[in-house]
Amino acid sequence: MATSPQKLSTSGQDYLLATWENDQLTMIPHCACGQTLDEDYTCRACGRQCACDFVLCRDMQTLQVVQRLICGNPQFKNLQADVLG
Question: Cβ distance 70 to 79 under 8 Å?
Fold first, then answer.
C-alpha cells in the first residue's frame, strides 16, 4: 500500500522522507503541514514541535533498508514505514 505526503498531512502525521543513495540512508524530517524541519523538529511554518515516527520511502529499495533498520534496532521499533506512491 503506497502512501503520499497528502495522506499524511490529512491525518496530521509528521514524517521522515527517506532515500537510499550511494549505500547511504538519508532521512529528512517533515511536519504534517509539509514544511521541512530543522534539527530541533520545530516547524517554522506552524510553530509545532513535531514527532516523526513515520518513514516515507522514495522507493522499494529504501523501504527494504528502513524495514531492516526497524526490525534490527530497538531504538527504531516504534517507527512505521511505507513507500511513496
Answer: yes
Q: 69, 35, 6: which is closest to 77 by C-alpha? A: 69
pLDDT tens digits, one per residue of 12-47 = 999 999 999 999 999 999 999 999 999 999 999 999
DSSP, residue by residue, the chain: --B-HHHHHHTT--EEEEEEETTEEEEEEE-TTSPBP-TT-B-TTT-PBP---EEEESSHHHHHHHHHHHHH-GGGTT-EEEEB-
Measured in whole angstroms, the distance separating CA 21 from the mean position of its chain's CA atoms is 16
Does the pLDDT of residue 2 top 90, yes or no? no
pTM, two decimals, is 0.92
Q: How many residues does the chain have?
A: 85
